[in-house]
Design goal:
The complex is a heterodimer. Chain A is of the alpha/beta class. In chain A, strands 1, 2, 3, 4, 5 and 6 form a six-stranded mixed β-sheet that branches. Chain A is globular. By secondary structure, chain B is α+β, with helices and mostly antiparallel strands. Chain B has three domains: 172 residues, Beta-Lactamase (2-Layer Sandwich); 226 residues, Phosphatase 2c, domain 1 (4-Layer Sandwich), CATH 3.60.40.10; 148 residues, Heat Shock Protein 90 (2-Layer Sandwich), CATH 3.30.565. In chain B, strand 8 and strand 9 form a beta hairpin. In chain B, helix 2 runs antiparallel to helix 3, helix 7 packs antiparallel against helix 8 and helix 12 packs antiparallel against helix 13. The longest helix of chain B is centred in the first third of the chain and has 46 residues. The radius of gyration of chain B is 42 Å and the shape is rod-shaped. The chains are: A alpha/beta, B alpha+beta. At the A-B interface, helix 2 and helix 3 of A face helix 12, helix 13, helix 14 and helix 15 of B.
Chain lengths: 97, 571
């Protein structure tokens, strides 16, 4: 399962599994964010290409209006996915906060 | 003549005397007391001055006079003298003047200073017509023995014979009991060396049993871990009784100590052989199998000293292979150099079957042996279960085959099975809604430690990407998707089968340009692109006739080290 919501410091916190079954939930949430947003992924266990698609779509939308999506706390095994897919070049990836 | 004499009726007075003797003879349980009682009774009834009883020794065919406990008995051959003649003819000899009879040996009188006048010599024959011995009565009080005495003595002799035979059988039983106790003790020593529990070896199932025969046989088995290798021993010393039980016990200890000091199988094998060749009696030897299995490489080396056939069930062929001994039995003669060991590879599901000849040679009432083919049949039938179940099935089959025939030899078995391939399959409906069920499926595999938990994200990723690919790009398909997972060395192999679909070769899907600027990036194709990079191997096959797509991928710990290296270069 996936939970996604604003954390205490204004960042969006996603935890659990961002797979094809949960992608619509994440997409619906991220469609509402504006400006530059930090997405805290420290508790995200898993991401598939469907999840990457959600992030890509959100990034494109935010960048069109001058904002962007920053990722933080990416776990090592998820970092591989970002590196292999070239997504590390599309997102600013911060270390865990 | 005996027949004529037996027809005569005894006077009431004599009958009473004999009945009195009968009850007196019921009491003693040891031979010397019984002999004394018999002589005392005969002297009393026949009013003789002296008496003696010679016992028949059927082994030497001699007549033996027990003089006193601790003194060498006097022995007379069958047929010699009055005693021997009586034993041979089984008839009473009544001599009224001994010194006039050429069969009389006056030597005894000379030695003792006694003067034998007359003598009654009569055979002691029991109810089963067995000659127990010969009784002699000397010097009738106030005269010579007459026909009445002969009749009386004959009636008395029958009583004495039965009483003596009873005591002799009782003594034989007591001797047998002593022997049984000694055997039991040897058996206890032998049993005490058997492993109390089977060693636990990762990836293997080991089970052994020892079923002793009524008389001690010389079987033993052992299974223990020495320097991370599993050592298995099955041996059989020649013969029955205390000696083989003790010699296998000795060999058992030699092997354990030998391998502790010198872990080389060949060296230990030769040393144990040479030590036994020095200590075992000339006509004795021990057939023995000694095997060493490395559970990491699954290589088994073995030496077999005349122990065979050695069976190995080959799971891939579903058949048993038979191996011959590498050497002659242990202790038969010294070995200058160790013989060449046999090397076997234990593949998943393979079973090493060590069985003593007490099982191969177990006979049914028709005289047929259980044989190797029956053992092999049962191994093939029961190869899928645990070795404990297989062992029970073999023992049951042997018992059924024997149909109550007595077990003549020890039955010993030692089975070593490499765990069969772990495989599990499940079908999933063609919908992304099936993903939680798929996660639950992999949850179970990793909870059961089918593979290193670090492989979990990659397994889940590849499963999801390939599955959603099937769902999205084969809309005509209606059948469920079958996922078949198999544990392989270091990881998992997953096969996903999709029916009633058009071919879509996931290995040839175009690569994604991961360096493209964001405006040109699309999410499509990324899943397969990443999957190909993450897994060890990815294969695709299409069955035209069935419209079946089959995707197989493998993820192992090799992928982990590869990623680490790659990341290292990139940093």
């Amino acid at each position: 399962m996936l939970t996604i919501d604003y954390g205490q410091d204004g960042a969006v916190v996603a935890s659990g599994r961002l797979d094809a079954a949960q992608a619509p939930v994440a997409q619906a949430f991220l469609d509402r964010v504006q400006g530059t947003v930090t997405l805290d992924l420290a508790s995200l266990d898993y991401i598939s290409s469907a999840g990457l698609g959600v992030l890509l779509k959100t990034q494109k939308r935010l960048m069109a209006s001058g904002g962007r999506l920053r990722l933080s706390g990416l776990r090592p095994h998820l970092r591989d996915i970002f590196v292999y897919s070239g997504f590390d070049k599309l997102f600013e990836i911060e270390p865990a906060r | 003549m005996g027949a004529r004499i037996r027809e005569r009726r005894l006077p009431a007075r004599d009958l009473e005397a004999i009945l009195g003797v009968t009850s007196a003879l019921a009491a003693p349980f040891d031979l010397m007391t019984m002999l004394a009682e018999v002589v005392r009774a005969a002297k009393q009834v026949l009013r003789a001055d002296r008496g003696s009883v010679w016992l028949h020794d059927p082994k030497t065919h001699e007549l033996v006079l027990e003089v006193a406990t601790g003194i060498q008995p006097v022995r007379v051959p069958f047929g010699a003298g009055l005693v021997g003649a009586c034993a041979r003819t089984r008839e009473i000899i009544n001599v009224s003047d001994c010194y006039a009879d050429p069969r009389f040996d006056a030597g005894v009188d000379r030695a003792s200073g006694y003067r034998t006048r007359c003598m009654l010599t009569l055979p002691l024959v029991d109810h089963h017509d067995v000659l127990v011995g010969v009784m002699q009565l000397l010097n009738k009080d106030g005269g010579v023995f007459d026909e009445g005495d002969e009749a009386l003595a004959t009636a008395l002799a029958a009583q004495c014979a039965v009483a003596l035979q009873r005591v002799r059988m009782t003594e034989a039983l007591i001797e047998g009991e002593r022997m049984r106790q000694a055997l039991e003790m040897a058996r206890d020593v032998q049993m005490s060396t058997l492993p109390r529990a089977m060693p636990v070896v990762r990836g293997y199932d080991v089970c052994g049993t020892f079923r002793p025969a009524e008389l001690t046989g010389g079987d033993t088995f052992d299974a223990f871990v020495n320097r991370e290798r599993l050592v298995v021993v099955l041996a059989d010393a020649t013969g029955h009784g205390i000696a083989p039980a003790l010699s296998v016990t000795q060999m058992h200890a030699m092997i354990r100590i030998g391998l502790n000091l010198e872990p080389d199988l060949g060296t230990t094998f030769a040393q144990v052989n040479n030590r036994l060749a020095e200590t075992l009696p000339e006509d004795r030897f021990i057939t023995a199998f000694i095997g060493m299995l490395d559970p990491a490489t699954h290589v088994l080396h073995f030496q077999s000293a005349g122990q065979g056939p050695i069976l190995k069930y080959d799971a891939s062929r579903g058949a048993c292979d038979r191996y011959r001994p590498t050497s002659f039995p242990l202790g038969a003669m010294p070995l200058a150099v160790p013989p060449a060991a046999v090397t076997l590879s234990m593949q998943p599901g393979d079973i090493l079957v060590l069985v003593s000849d007490g099982i191969f040679d177990h006979r049914n009432p028709a005289g047929e042996s259980f044989g190797e083919a029956r053992v092999e049949d049962i191994v093939r039938e029961r190869c899928a279960g645990s070795v404990a179940d297989l062992m029970q099935a073999l023992l049951d089959a042997v018992a059924q085959f024997g149909a109550g025939a007595p077990q003549e030899d020890d039955m010993t078995m030692l089975l070593v099975k490499r765990d069969a391939v772990k495989r599990r399959e499940q079908t999933f409906s063609r919908s992304v809604d099936a993903l939680p069920a798929m996660v639950a499926f992999t949850d179970e595999l990793f909870a059961e430690q089918w593979a290193d938990s670090r492989l979990r994200p990659t397994i889940d990723f590849a499963l999801e990407e390939l599955f959603t690919n099937m769902v999205k790009y084969s809309p005509m398909g209606t059948a469920d998707v079958r996922i078949d997972v198999m544990a392989v060395e270091g990881g998992l192999e997953v096969t996903m089968t999709d029916h009633g679909v058009a071919p879509f070769d996931v290995t040839r899907a175009p690569d994604v340009d991961v360096d493209a600027p964001i405006e040109r990036r699309r999410p499509g194709g990324l899943g397969l692109h990443l999957t190909r990079r993450l897994v060890d191997s990815l294969d695709y096959a299409y069955d035209e006739a069935r419209g079946e797509s089959r995707i197989t991928f493998r993820v192992t710990t090799r992928a982990l080290s590869r990623d680490t290296q790659r990341q290292g270069r990139e940093c």
